[in-house]
Design brief:
By secondary structure, the protein is an alpha/beta fold. It has five helices and twelve strands. The protein has a single domain, classed as 3-Layer(aba) Sandwich (Rossmann fold), CATH 3.40.50.10420. The protein is about 25% helix and about 20% strand. The strands form three sheets. A six-stranded parallel beta sheet has the order 1-12-7-4-2-3, with helices on both faces. It has a four-stranded mixed beta sheet with strand order 8-5-6-9. It has a two-stranded antiparallel ribbon with strand order 10-11.
Length: about 210
């Protein structure tokens, strides 16, 4: 008997003994955890900085000025935004604003200096930002191809842990999880940034 036959045989036996519909998967996650706003903010920022993201704090009224300042500091002259993003956020940016569309081929997004999006929910404990493809976040390609991603995160959307964050997501929507700028390490643990996505992640917490 070959290894393949052995493995397939075990799968068949397991299927007979425990049909998928009869298997109960335990979901005993820790949920409902909360922290005061200042502690949740400090924890979230600590994780973001540890992942080498750049963090800016802003009020809603100051948001257009903050975004314009961040983009200017990066030398951005041409920025992409999702079709559903509040255009007033870019009202003080003096460069070109390109509204993304599914008709634009992904390789063409390389012509953008950066992208500005909103976010769905974030996890303070892991420093992870969740995007779900909503109109103000756009398609995955928009946040993966340009070298700079400026992501706006409302403090009200920051949960303490992963279970609390996942509970606010719609399972049927495509979810992208961001924990710092794109990076990887080779066998000698040399960190290389910008391999699978933006080299720079700027997070504006409102």
């Amino acid at each position: 008997m070959t290894s393949r036959e052995t493995i397939l045989g075990r799968i068949r036996d397991a299927s007979v003994l425990a049909p998928p519909e009869s298997v109960e998967v335990p979901r005993e996650y820790r949920t409902g955890r909360t922290l005061p706003d200042d502690e949740r903010y400090e924890l979230f920022v600590d994780r973001l900085v540890d992942y080498k993201a750049n963090v800016y704090r802003s009020t809603l009224g100051e948001l257009p000025a903050t975004i314009a300042r961040v983009l200017a500091a990066r030398g951005v002259r041409r920025v992409g935004i999702p079709a559903g993003l509040d255009s007033s956020w870019l009202s003080q940016f003096d460069g070109e604003v390109v509204v993304d569309s599914v008709d634009v081929p992904a390789p063409a997004l390389e012509g953008l200096d950066g992208v500005v999006t909103a976010s769905t929910v974030s996890c303070a404990e892991t420093g992870t930002i969740f995007l779900d493809g909503s109109p103000d976040q756009g398609r995955r390609a928009l946040t993966l191809v340009p070298d700079l991603h400026v992501c706006v995160v409302p403090m009200s959307s920051v949960e303490v842990g992963v279970p609390e964050a996942l509970a606010r997501l719609v399972p049927e929507r495509p979810t992208t999880m961001i924990s710092g700028p794109s990076a990887t390490s080779d066998i000698e643990l040399e960190r290389v940034e910008g391999v699978h996505g933006p080299r720079t992640l700027d997070v504006v917490i409102v």
